[in-house]
Design brief:
Blueprint: H1 3-57, H2 64-80, H3 82-89, H4 111-127, H5 131-139, H6 141-175, H7 178-182
Length: 216
């Protein structure tokens, strides 16, 4: 094999390796975008859940003490959400070239926000733990609408968290490949992290399109 043939072979291999690295980097960037988009969707649904809880607390459908506790828990989420409201507003432009790319979303949810969301879940479960009380609320059209809005937002938030965590797991697997680490294909982007919080469903509430527990 002549030197010119060796040179051509080396160049061809270098081009092939470069192309493969570019493909891998592009895939990783798409995964990062998927994680950020799913996180934005999760934040949007959690904000809707907190807003539905505020509406329920302000409706006079619950006893005064429960209403106050629920309002405080919901407002704690929304007040801690100085960030999340901005994120929700940016959802439509995420896929555009000029849209901001908030890399911090890859790093997971702030502990204070996760704690506030978990406290809201616990407060809602306490308020809606009695199936008979929930059934009585549903007998009132206004109360039934409030519970439907809450259950729909909560259900979508659970699904959004599941999809987000699956997207994070997929990105983490790719980030763990040796060639990704060797060639630093992730750049300075933080390692994607799952969102862990308490969003367990109140047994008495009933899933969307399902009857509440204790009803026929």
């Amino acid at each position: 094999m002549t030197w010119s043939e060796i040179a051509i072979l080396v160049v061809a291999v270098a081009v092939l390796v470069g192309w493969l690295l570019w493909v891998a980097a592009s895939r990783l960037d798409r995964l990062h975008r998927k994680v950020m988009a799913s996180r934005l969707a999760l934040d949007a649904q959690l904000v809707r859940r907190a807003s539905a809880a505020v509406d329920l607390a302000a409706s006079a459908e619950l006893d005064p003490v429960t209403s106050v506790l629920l309002a405080e828990a919901a407002h704690a989420v929304l007040d801690d959400d100085a960030d999340a409201r901005r994120l929700v507003e940016s959802v439509p432009g995420l896929g555009t070239q000029d849209a901001p790319r908030p890399r911090r979303l890859l790093g997971g949810m702030a502990p204070s926000r996760a704690l506030a969301e978990s406290d809201l879940s616990a407060t809602l479960r306490s308020a809606l733990e009695d199936a008979e009380d929930v059934a009585e609320l549903r007998d009132d059209p206004a109360g039934d609408e409030l519970l439907r809005n809450l259950s729909a937002a909560w259900y979508r938030a659970q699904l959004a968290r599941r999809f987000h965590n699956e997207a994070v797991a997929q990105a983490q697997r790719v980030r763990g490949k040796w060639w990704v680490r060797l060639f630093r294909l992730a750049g300075h982007a933080p390692m994607p992290a799952t969102v862990e919080l308490d969003d367990a469903w109140p047994p008495g509430l009933g899933r969307p399109l399902e009857p509440a527990a204790g009803t026929s």
